[in-house]
Amino acid sequence: MSLAVLARSFGSPEVLEVVEVDPPVAGPGQVVIEVRAAGVNPADAKLVAGTFGDDPSMLPIRPGSEVAGVVTAVGPDAVDGVLPGGDGPVSVGDEVIAYRVSGGYASAVAVRASSVFAKPPALDWAAASGLLLAGVTAWHLVEATGVGPDDVVIVFGASGGVGAMAVQLAALRGARVLGVASAANADYVASLGATPVARGAGLESRLRAALSASARAADAAAAGGAADAAGDGAPATVALDTVGGAEGLDAAVVLVADRSRIATIADFERGAALGIRLLGSGPGADPGAALRNAARAPLVALAAQGALTVTVAATYPLTSAADALTLPHAPGKVALLP
Ligand SMILES: NC(=O)c1ccc[n+]([C@@H]2O[C@H](COP(=O)([O-])OP(=O)(O)OC[C@H]3O[C@@H](n4cnc5c(N)ncnc54)[C@H](OP(=O)(O)O)[C@@H]3O)[C@@H](O)[C@H]2O)c1
To answer: Record's Pfam families (predicted)?
Structure first.
């Protein structure tokens, strides 16, 4: 038998239970993965809560849309995956990550081979299971706003799963990055490659000061350390919001002149009212499905090169899925270890 986490009713994470189920079988175009780690994302709790629909026909719900593990069976025609070493068909014994999957909170899962990628060796199981959902969302944020080397980017929620990826991807594109997070997470945000700015009352003036200081530092670096530019009034050119609410978005529209270069994944109501980009699933939002799917392979490659890191805040056994979705944790991703 196989173990799976499921919800028989909509509600808070406490409705989740671990049950025995028939082991998954690799159908046409599928592989079976023995799950070593299942990535936990805020969307999992929203799915269980009924935020994405509460039709009883959806029950029981089996959350989990990304996993890392070992291939134990390969179905007919399962040849599409991006494979360990980059060539050859996916094989039993391959160490892989998979996104998007259904019911990833489990000891084993059947997955489309086209959703399977080689596990970057630099990431352990828990980290690897948290790479892709946050990664493709962050990729969509930097791509939709056209982040490049001349940009100054503000990331709201820089210590979060998506925010940490957005900081790293914007920095990899050569942008200067300011990362807004709680003051307690400033060192973590700095380690990702951003200038940390504490969230909370007075955020806009702290951002203005950080923008000025960043511009002065950039000018000095360009002039070999001799410049004495004022830097006052230096603008941001892009804002990426992963939190929502007035605090960040109201500051974003004041500090970034071009609203097509401000994007939110977390507050479509306020975002629509402000006329900024809405990314994800929801009315008026760009789901970016093709772009996100295409981002998986380059994200895996960046992680394999060590250019992209995933920090793990906590791991839990499958039996503690409710805790994984509710307990506060240090910055970084959470994973379930079957
Ligand atoms: N549209 C899409 O396609 C899409 C895709 C993925 C995720 N999402 C959504 O995007 C959001 C972020 O996802 P995630 O995986 O990055 O979540 P996460 O890992 O839980 O991070 C959220 C971050 O927000 C910050 N935060 C929490 N409360 C805050 C507050 N009151 N004010 C300001 N910042 C606060 C926290 O950092 P500090 O405490 O350091 O501030 C935390 O690190 C979630 O709502 C998720 O459902 C949307």
So the answer is: ADH_N
